[in-house]
Amino acid sequence: EAGVAQSPRYKIIEKRQSVAFWCNPISGHATLYWYQQILGQGPKLLIQFQNNGVVDDSQLPKDRFSAERLKGVDSTLKIQPAKLEDSAVYLCASSGPGNEQFFGPGTRLTVL
Amino acid sequence: SQELEQSPQSLIVQEGKNLTINCTSSKTLYGLYWYKQKYGEGLIFLMMLQKGGEEKSHEKITAKLDEKKQQSSLHITASQPSHAGIYLCGADPSGSARQLTFGSGTQLTVLP
């Protein structure tokens, strides 16, 4: 069974630029999560999707972050414009009928 | 909101030694998850505990959820260099939404 795929693995941008991350969950998993992990901290949930609907986006900085999951499968997370404090690893996870979340390898973003 | 405190923050042990990592919650735990993370990579699921007093083992790793369901411990017996990484505990705040709140992690180094 293929795991959660994410791309790119690494991205370096300058502040005020835009960036987008892509996630392909495990086939058949209805729930998809985006987490932000700042160095030295645990992951923090940004947004949770159930199929193509948003379950919780209360911790998503909506003035600069957006996410979509149009067909209930792949998802993209966008930052526009990026700030220095957005430097982090962005993790995508998915879950199926059970409660276990499966994580992708993450995208490491560096904002200069 | 639920907060998870992990201790110690970092741990250096000699190969072959036993070790314990603790995770303490500010609220009752409805589900407690242990993950392992290699630097710069995604999270690997280790174990999930739901019932007070529950104990699970996988290879040389044992996790336990205390009776009052506010603390969990992860014990590694006869540590090996392959056990090195960051151990994260995650909790489901409500028991229904399948969201996870994570601790800040314990960095484990195993010296050969």
> Which structural class best describes the helix and strand composition of chain B?
mainly beta
**Oligomeric state of the chains in view:** heterodimer
Number of helical regions of chain B: 0
CA-atom Rg of chain B in angstroms: 13 Å
Described by strand count, sense and barrel closure, the largest sheet of chain B is:
6 strands, mixed
User: What overall geometry of chain B do the principal axes of the alpha carbons give?
Assistant: globular
Q: Could you provide a short overview of the structure?
A:
Helices cover about 0% and strands about 50% of the residues of chain A. Chain A is mainly beta and about 110 residues long. Chain A is globular.
Structure report:
The complex is a heterodimer of chains A (112) and B (112). Chain A has 112 residues and is an all-beta fold. Chain A has no helices and eleven strands. In chain A, the strands form two sheets. In chain A, strands 2, 4, 5, 6, 9, 10 and 11 form a seven-stranded mixed sheet that branches. In chain A, strands 1-3-8-7 form a four-stranded antiparallel sheet, with no helix packed on it. In chain A, strand 9 (88-95) and strand 10 form a beta hairpin. Chain A is globular and about 40 Å long. The termini of chain A are far apart. The mean pLDDT of chain A is 94. Chain B has strands at residues 4-7, 10-14, 19-25, 32-37, 43-49, 55-58, 61-65, 71-76, 85-91, 101-102, 106-111. In chain B, strand 6 (55-58) and strand 7 form a beta hairpin. Chain B starts with a strand and ends with a strand. The mean pLDDT of chain B is 90. Chains A and B meet through strand 5, strand 9 and strand 10 of A and strand 5 and strand 10 of B.
